[in-house]
Amino acid sequence: MPLVPMRQILDEAAKGGYGVGAFNVNNMEQIQAIMQAAHDTKSPVIIQASRGALKYSKMIYLRNLIAAATEEFPEIPLTMHLDHGNSVETCQQAIELGFTSVMIDGSLAEDGKTINDYAANVAITKKVVEMAHPLGVSVEGELGALGGIEDGHGAGLSTDEVEKHLTNPEEAESFVAETGLDALAVAIGTSHGAYKGSRKDPKTGETLPPLLAMDRIREIHKRMPNCHMVMHGSSSVPKKLVDIINQYGGRMPDAAGVALDDIQEGIRNGVRKINVDTDSRLAMTGAARKVFAETPEKFDPRDWLGPAREAAYEVYVERMNAFGQAGHAGDYEPMTLDDIKSVYCSGGCCCNG
Ligand SMILES: [Zn+2]
């Protein structure tokens, strides 16, 4: 099966009332684990690559690994998505490489650090939509700014600053109308990376998940029932995975993620794409550390990459079940980029159209 436009995967998720995990990849083991999990749970799925991942994998390797994934599992609707594109050129490059969906993160300037104003965000997002839609490629934009930095991308906001940059629902409505995008990334208090919480449990001293502004999601959904929202920085950072890392020589004392309950509440209110990166990193690193600690005589990379892949697989299966995408791979006839071009031309341009 050729790669599917993300817009279709999200439209179908909205119809079915479920969310779809968008998992970041850098290497073969992650792609294999995602595809095996999607196959075993019968899930449509989004694989995404950041600019950092494309650089690490020298672009062409990642593209060909994903081509291999579609060849091995032709029954799985799969989108290849660019995460946090910073310019029209970066998005164009991804499209030329075969991506069926791109994110233009106009919430930040091209340096990926400075916060953009609303007008600049609209201007660049609109430009990417105008370039991508005639090719059938889906576009995700972002309004508001997230905390944390990942792969060098992010404004590095503190918890207090994150509060000030939450997505404004009224602005979201005009942003979607003005840009015509397919999916809207919202800032509701999540952060990229493994340290999302700053609250401590007064009794145990453990770091608690962040308090999310779920009312913003509910308000946006009320204003735009057909708008597909995206939750970034949505790894759950399970304690059991962090404990394995710490048990075998790691040092991640204050790691904390987003509660799965909050994600599911988001899904009930229009969140259709959930970005997960950190959780598979934690699983893989924990599994590798365990092998190194328990069998120091081993030196074949397959001895730790294999268990790392298996640990990532477990995370993906859990998430696919929790988000509700499991069981939906065969629900619909996948569209090609050519098919969806005509949908855009007939006026179904933005996700609120
Ligand atoms: Zn993100």
Account of the protein in words:
The mean pLDDT is 93. The protein is 46% helix and 12% strand. It has one domain: TIM Barrel, CATH 3.20.20.70. It has 353 residues and is α/β, with parallel strands linked by helices. Strand 3, helix 5 (88-97) and strand 4 form a beta-alpha-beta unit. The protein has an 8-stranded parallel β-barrel with strand order 1-2-3-4-5-6-7-8, surrounded by 9 helices. Helix 10 (239-247) packs parallel to helix 12 (278-294). The protein is built from 14 helices and 8 strands. The radius of gyration is 19 Å and the shape is globular. Bound molecules: zinc ion.
Task: Give short descriptive properties of this protein.
353 residues; alpha/beta; TIM Barrel; 14 helices; 8 strands; 46% helix; 12% strand; binds zinc ion
Distance between the termini: 28 Å
Could you describe the largest sheet, including whether it forms a barrel? 8 strands, parallel, barrel
- Secondary-structure element string: HEHEHHEHEHEHHEHEHHEHHH
Bound molecules: zinc ion
**Fourth CATH level, the homologous superfamily:** Aldolase class I
Helical content band: 40-55%
Q: Can you count the helices?
A: 14
CATH class group: Alpha Beta
In CATH, the architecture is: Alpha-Beta Barrel
* Unreliable stretches covering 5 or more consecutive residues: none
- Tell me the number of strands: 8
The strand order across the widest sheet is: 1-2-3-4-5-6-7-8
CATH topology: TIM Barrel
Using the alpha-carbon principal axes, give the shape. Answer: globular
- The structure class reads alpha/beta
Percent in strands: 5-15%
Please tell me how large the radius of gyration is. Answer: 19 Å
Overall pLDDT metric: 93
Overall tally of structural domains: 1
